[in-house]
Known about the structure:
This protein is an alpha/beta fold. It contains 10 helices and 13 strands.
Amino acid sequence: MALIDFGGVKERVVTRKEFPLSKARKVLKGETIAVIGYGVQGPAQALNMKDNGINVIIGQSQAFKRDWDRAKKDGWVPGKTLFDIEEACERGTVIQMLVSDAAQKAIWPTVKKHLKPGDALYFSHGFSIVYKNQTQVIPPKDVDVIMVAPKGSGTSLRRNFLSGAGINSSFAVAQDATGRARERCIALEPALAGAMILEERAGLRPCRSAIRLGAERHSSGKLIVHNYGHGGAGVTLSWGCAREVVQLLRNLDRGRELIFDGPA
C-alpha cells in the first residue's frame, strides 16, 4: 500500500497493480452482489461489476416504474437478475444500499430481516449509518459493514469505466464480523470502478465538526448560497442547515464576512 501526498494530505492508497481485477474476482467468488436501487449510482456500479464478471443482481421496487423499466432495458431479467427489494436481499451476500438516504431509512426493516450471518452491508454514502439513532439503520453484529465511495457521479463512473480510465474511490470498514471485511471492500472497488482506492474516513465517520456555508452575488444580481454542509470524507449534508443559512443572509445584509463556520 502506497502513501501518497494529495495537496498536503497523506493518504494510504491501494493501486490497481496491488489489487488487480483477477484478485478481486477470486475474493468475490461465490458472492452474490445485490444492488438495491437502480437510480443514480446503482446502474453504473451494477453494470460495471457485471461487465467484470461479478455475480450481480438488482433489487428495485416496481412502484418506481421508470427505474424498473430502465433496469430491464439495460439487460437485467425479471426473476433471474432483477427482483423486488425483499427477494434481492434474501438472495444476496453483499447488500449494496444504493437508494437515497430517505429510502434507506424506509426499506431498512426489509433489508435487516434478510441479512444473514456473514453477509456484508455496503454503502456508497454514509448518512443513514452515521446518523443511525435518527434513521434506525443499525446493522446486526454478525455482518460486515463496509463502504466504497466512488469519486464521481454514476454517469462519470460508467463513462470512465467504458473508456478504460476508471475512477478513484474511497473505502472504509465500520464493522468486521467475518475477518474479511477489508478484503471484500477493496475487492469491490476494481470490480466497479477500476482505479486507485484511498483508505480514509469515507463517510462512516464525519470529520468536519462545523457547518460551512458561503455566498456570492451572481452577475444577474441574484444571491447564490453555497452549502458545503456538515460533511467531510464522504458525508456532506446540503440540507438541515436552515438556521445557519438565515444567519448567513443576515450577515450579508450587514456587510459582514460571507463564510459561516459554526457548530454542527
